[in-house]
Amino acid sequence: MEVGQPVVKVGFVERILGVNQVTAQRALSTLAKRGLLVESSGRSRYRIWRQPELLAVLDEYASTIRRAEQPPRRANVSSLHSESMKITVLEGDITAADVDAIVNAANSSLLGGGGVDGAIHRAAGPALLEECREVRRTKHVRGLPPGEAVATGGGNLKAEWVIHTVGPNRHQGQTDPAILESCFSSSLDLAAEVGARSVAFPAIGGGVYGWSPRDVAEAAHRAIVTGRGEGRWEEIEDVQFVLFHETMTSVFCQVFDHDQW
Ligand code: ADP
């Protein structure tokens, strides 16, 4: 492969086809299998092998790719019940989740970013960014610290609220799992406070912030077991983990399945 060859990212495909990230990722994997792209550093960057063909194929397959777009699908396992809280592990795009509140794995600036943060902002529209700016002007002038959470409206999402929390960034030496656990519990505290009965979580910290699927699943699990043990969040009936990858889904299922509710 030549140095300096152009790179196509998932976000580009999302934008030009107007599809969500899961669909764009699937489309790119298919094109890679057809030899039109070569996977580069990680799953979301592909080097363009033959650019004219790539654009032609994207164009040709646009409607098929769009049709493939689906709401989150249920993973094989894991619909777990405690006394009143149902916990489900799903695989798919969290922006399509049909819940009262979606949790966003934001960064401290709250002004949008990549990964799930970017997807949520794109789906929610500019009203969300405006609300985040307002939060920065008022409640969190220096940004939202890791482990804490703040709520805004959901803009164009089905969800009424977005709860923004910031995972600890392992790459910046923030390696305390208690902070990651706190992301889940602060978000549930806030969800209960705004009156949400159903909440969807992504794998906070499990992307660019560098936590392993097991770390994330165990932090989520500890947060819920501890909080429920203390009698918190009784109003929340439905907690969904809407995860992007099979590995993440299966680890969450293992961690939550072995539980005694
Ligand atoms: P962090 O910075 O907290 O690590 P990221 O956004 O980089 O957050 O990743 C968190 C997790 O969210 C990763 O597992 C990533 O694959 C996943 N993710 C990215 N987009 C979506 C989406 N649209 N729906 C659900 N999960 C997503």
Structure in words:
With 261 residues, the chain is α/β, with parallel strands linked by helices. The chain has 2 domains: 7-67; 74-255, Leucine Aminopeptidase, subunit E, domain 1 (3-Layer(aba) Sandwich), CATH 3.40.220. Helix content is 41%, strand content 20%. It contains 9 helices and 10 strands. It has helices at 10-17, 21-33, 51-60, 62-67, 115-124, 126-137, 177-194, 213-229, 246-257, and strands at residues 7-9, 37-39, 45-48, 73-81, 86-91, 101-106, 149-153, 161-166, 198-201, 238-243. The strands form 2 sheets. Strands 4-5-10-9-6-8-7 form a 7-stranded mixed beta sheet, with helices on both faces. A 3-stranded antiparallel beta sheet has the order 1-3-2. Strand 2 and strand 3 form a beta hairpin. The chain is globular and about 60 Å long. The termini are far apart. The relative contact order is 0.14. Residues 75-81 have low confidence and may be disordered. Adenosine-5'-diphosphate binds next to helix 5.
